[in-house]
Amino acid sequence: MSVRVHLEQEEHIRLNPKAAFSDCSRGRPCPEEQSEMEVRTNFQRDVDRIVHCKAFRRLMHKTQVFLQPEGDHYRTRMTHTLEVERIARTIARALGLNEDLTEAIAMGHDLGHTPFGHAGESALSECFGQPFRHNEQSLRVVDVLENGGAGLNLSYEVRMGILGHTGPNIPETLEGQIVRYSDRIAYINHDIDDAIRAGILSNEDIPRSISLVLGENHRQRINTLVQDMIDQSQDAQQIQLSEQVDKALLDLRSFMFEKVYRNPLAKSQESKAKDMLQKLYTFYYNHPEALPADFLPQMSFDGLGRTVCDYIAGMTDKYAVDKFSQFFIPDGWQVRG
User: Fold this and answer.
1) What's the pLDDT tens digit per position in 27-82?
2) In a domain? residue 310
3) Please, is 235 exposed, middle or buried when counting C-beta atoms within 10 Å of its C-beta (0-12, 13-18, 19+)?
4) Where in the sequence is the domain holding 256, given as residue range(s)?
5) Exposure winner among 75, 96, 279, 289, fewest CB in 10 A?
6) From CA 281, how far away is CA 277, in angstroms rounded?
7) Could you write out the DSSP letters of every residue in 169-215?
8) Residue 63, strand partner residues
9) CATH of the domain at 158
10) How many domains does the chain have?
């Protein structure tokens, strides 16, 4: 018996009957033969494909909330992804669900995020003339853009979990629903931490009605949310929070939008970032020959505008600034790193 087959059989013994089982996947866009010598299950292979792809590596240089903050301790898309993965796996393990599937969805959920956070999404939406949504772009990355247009050929459950981590499409699997909640738990709480570090928020600013339910600090809030989700989802057909805790989380999110996400101090550079990306879009649209050679074949996929969007969305913050400097700032005025 191969290692993979043994692991697949073990899943059926130890996991919750409501879990997504590796050997019951709905398959990949392009069917693949599984070698008898393969030691990894379907979902383990998907984790490895995501972690080794170029889009994943770029997350370490993409903004979470604060644009070019002073200091090394602010979150990036990479650290956010890792925090989501840890929260989600803790919940999946406690509920007896498939940790490998949970990890794959968490690791891939933000691959399509633009440089400069949601300011980049807004800029590309205006340029392209239709909503640019990072969850849809994340699916596009794994389906189309990686491997020179071949994509990563991930399992259906991973792909739909990535698409459904935000927006109207709720994942079919409980593992995908866990990641959807864990994303919100992670970003709200670590954004509080970063906002306190930036001096635009204090822990005492959080309304008492929220703190009395979720806790007084970062650790207590996450512990409350994770424990409540485990307790409330044990015998349920979906992943859920209790009514009281869910309301407190929604109230905390609204508080963060009011005090941080729309705060002029936190967002003072966003208009500049948007303007920069929009100018880059116009430049590349008018000069497609300036696109890298490996992007030129992709113009045949969905047209030039889509290709330019794909290229800019894949940029890191620094790379976007460097390209803007190259095309729009005279050589003698450019700041050399």
Assistant:
1) 999 999 888 788 999 999 999 999 999 999 999 999 876 656 555 667 889 999 99
2) no
3) exposed
4) 3-261
5) 289
6) 6
7) ---SSHHHHHHHHHHHHHHHHHHHHHHHHHTS--GGGS-HHHHHHH-
8) 76
9) 1.10.3210.10
10) 1
